[in-house]
Specification:
single chain, Nucleotidyltransferase, domain 5, 10 helices, seven-stranded mixed sheet, globular, sedoheptulokinase activity
């Protein structure tokens, strides 16, 4: 659908430590306004020292604050919203009770209601022994601790009563989209579904036979759509954004970060932070092997338009990053003396 003249696009990223929002003019792709807000949502994990959980109320409060900091006259021109966020993690809620809409400072916002904590991608409760006890997925991607399906399996074994409280689940960005659109069942992009495990990217389906055989609560699994699909429309005015604005199905932050950087199909992206990632887009028509190898150095993640990203990652930690920065500074100083 074509956007009306003068309409703006709102981009949201619900990250691990902060929420970011940006208003973009869609034709020129010029950023008109942006704002970010730390969530300060970390909680002591209920599963012990290895648990990494976040307070969803804090995250949504930061999101609402982030939006209200943008110019209201600009927000009224938003006709489409794109949402990305931290992948792999999972939270649970009750359909029709996941949030409540309230008036705050003459603006309409939503607050979480019947919702669990967010178990993040950093969660370590699923030990190596526990993961080895799970059925092998029918997928080219392995399952690791912090992956949504692995976490649900952990609850199924250790706290089955917990799961009985909820009838919906998703990533934090899927939750945001569901609440904005008033969805009766969560929707999830293939990017986020692949990050949960037990998802076959070629057929774009969950491993239903495997999961059902092992007693997995499959009704919790979201319906999966292609990345770039429209999930619905805003069911209320939100922070000055008009009711009826289109909302895209939530995307993975990794894919979005690459998409914003690549300009040519032959480009590669090197990202260096706590981990280092070298990424490039695979040719059209490429399909990864169904069965992953534990020793495989390159992993393939769904991208856009049925293409894949090849990713070589090193979970090297901050010490290596600090050493790399020191080395670059030394090189710069030496080159400056030539």
């Amino acid at each position: 659908m074509e956007l009306q003249e003068g309409a703006l696009v709102l981009g949201i990223d619900v990250g691990t430590s902060s929420v970011k929002a940006v208003l973009v003019e869609p034709v020129s792709r010029e950023v008109q306004h942006s704002h970010s807000r730390d969530t300060r949502a970390g909680l002591q994990g209920e599963s012990g020292a290895q648990g990494k959980e976040q307070d969803v109320h804090q995250i949504i409060r930061a999101l609402n604050d982030c939006l209200t900091a943008l110019p209201r006259d600009r927000l009224r021109k938003v006709s489409r919203i794109g949402v990305s966020g931290q992948m792999h993690g999972v939270l649970f809620w009750r359909t029709n009770q996941g949030c409540q809409w309230i008036n705050s400072e003459n603006l309409r916002v939503f607050e979480p209601r019947e919702v669990s904590r967010l178990v993040t991608w950093e969660d370590g409760r699923c030990t190596t022994d526990f993961l080895s006890s799970l059925p092998p997925p029918q997928s080219h991607l392995n399952v690791a601790s912090g992956f949504g399906c692995a976490t649900i399996f952990w609850y199924l074994k250790n706290r089955p009563d917990f799961l009985q409280q909820y009838d919906a689940a998703g990533t934090i960005q899927d939750y945001v989209v569901s609440m904005l659109c008033g969805l009766q069942k969560p929707l999830m992009s293939v990017q986020n579904a692949a990050s949960w495990g037990y998802f076959h990217t070629r057929t774009k389906t969950w491993n239903m036979d495997i999961l059902q055989e092992w007693g997995f609560p499959v009704p919790l699994l979201p319906t999966v759509l292609d990345a770039g699909s429209i999930a619905g429309k805003t069911s209320y005015d939100w922070c000055g954004i008009p009711q009826g604005a289109e909302v895209g199905v939530a995307l993975g932050d990794f894919q979005c970060s690459v998409y914003s950087t690549l300009s040519e199909s032959t480009d590669a992206v090197l990202n260096i932070s706590t981990s280092a990632q070298l990424t490039y887009s695979m040719p059209e028509g490429f399909q990864p092997e169904d069965h992953p190898s534990p020793a495989e150095a390159v992993t393939y993640f769904p991208y856009f338009k049925d293409r894949y990203l090849a990713v070589a990652a090193s979970l090297n930690g901050g010490n290596v990053f600090a050493a790399f920065v020191t080395m670059l500074a030394q090189w710069t100083a030496e080159l400056g003396n030539i």
